[in-house]
Write a structure and sequence with these properties.
UDP-N-acetylmuramoyl-L-alanine:D-glutamate ligase, alpha/beta, single chain, binds alpha-D-ribofuranose, 9-stranded mixed β-sheet, 10 helices, 13 strands
Length: about 300
Amino acid sequence: MTHIAVLGSTNMDLVAYVAKAPQRGETVTGREFRTIPGGKGANQAVAAVRAGADVSLIGAVGVDAFGSQLRSTLEHSGVNTDHLRTTEGSSGTAHIVVDDEGGNAIVVIPGANGSVTDLAPGDEGLIATADGLLLQLEIQQSAVLAGAEAARSHGVRTILTPSPVQPLPPELLATIDLLVPNEHEAAALTGATDPRRAAAALLDQVPEVVITLGSAGSLYAARGAEPLTVHAPRVTAVDTTGAGDTFVGTLAVALAEGREMPEALRWASAAAALSVQRIGATSSMPYRAEIDTQASHTLRSTS
Ligand code: RIB
């Protein structure tokens, strides 16, 4: 079995479901409230474990009740939490509004995630045994850099989701094998709103890029190769929270298993399409057999 390491955040998602998100200064009545374990690191870990890998999460939870819930959700999902620290103070929270089209707006309060500034003893040894390291930007950038450098020094593939988007220093980009922004993040990083142009600009800094395009699928670009667009299955979204994380976690497993990029992208798209049809982040992520079934339907309907 492949082993994926994830260095990243855990958040308790506090989700309000509402017909239409409020504008500034407006108060609206929502339909429902849920607390659902999430955080980009935890989400990618759960997605990868359900896609069929052994997964370890490096990060932190707080000493509060959310911290215990986050840890136990990860453990029940089969994610190894031996490298998940418990720190003084609150766990990370994400304050999410989901509208009737499944779109969302999110405010993240880092809490314990902010205490992850570097690798802890033993983390590098864990990363060295992995077939891939997944990184996002909800912990301190110094820790992301330390993790990526450790992976690089052991020949482990690094995959970075640049979210929440922020300037990426050249020394961090130099340690990244595959960058996976969504179209908004790609535009923010490059100034190019056209995904092909954004991908071309990003290839000056990393060898491979996948830009996720929501219901339009994804665009893959690599140095010296023609860009490739992979269409997403057509589905009706009820909640897109965590869809990008589902995509990345599943993609990492496919690549670690040695699949070629086009097939890996189709498999990841199938997983993301399943996740948007369900509520929440970790709660929406599909299992390997479901992904296989969805991917085979997609292949039949496009061939
Ligand atoms: O990518 C989705 C995630 O973003 C949510 O689970 C929330 O915790 C925020 O981190």
